[in-house]
Amino acid sequence: MSKRAFEHFIGSRTQPASVFWQQHKERWLQAVGQLYANVEGWLDEYVTSMAVVCQREPRVLVEDDIGEYKMEALGITCRDIHVVLDPVGANIIGALGRVDMMGPAGDVRLLLVPPGRGGPRKHIRRVDERTAEAEEELALAPVFKLTTDPPV
Questions:
Q1: What pTM was computed for the model?
Q2: Rounded distance, CA 115 to CA 99, Å?
Q3: 20 with 14: CB under 8 angstroms?
Q4: Helix (H, G, I), strand (E, B), or coil: what is residue 114?
Q5: Nearest-CA neighbor of 142 among 109, 108, 95, 88?
Q6: pLDDT tens-digit profile of 41-68?
């Protein structure tokens, strides 16, 4: 990269990196909170009848650029079956965050992605080549989607 290109890159930064990571963390915390509220809402009648117990469990996550912060895992117990929705973090390649759901039948990964995002992208783009389309996609409320291991 030439000196001129580097100076252009530095001058084109619209906000400090710390502001970006703080906003990213806040969006992540809000999305996980909404996920848990949805799950608790879906199970509400079973919780009321005491067939299911939902319990929040404290977690402390430490991530590059974001630092240390507190979150909660959501434990769900039905009879002798215990399932946990456990936040992994917001620094996930190709996603805005990840929550793992673990139980006796196996594990499932939930990725937080912009709505409308399908499968993996077929191209690679440099980070500094952010387009208006990418900016608009980031402005939408992200959603959680299931991921699975690739076929063997």
A1: 0.71
A2: 17
A3: no
A4: coil
A5: 95
A6: 999 999 999 999 999 999 999 999 899 9
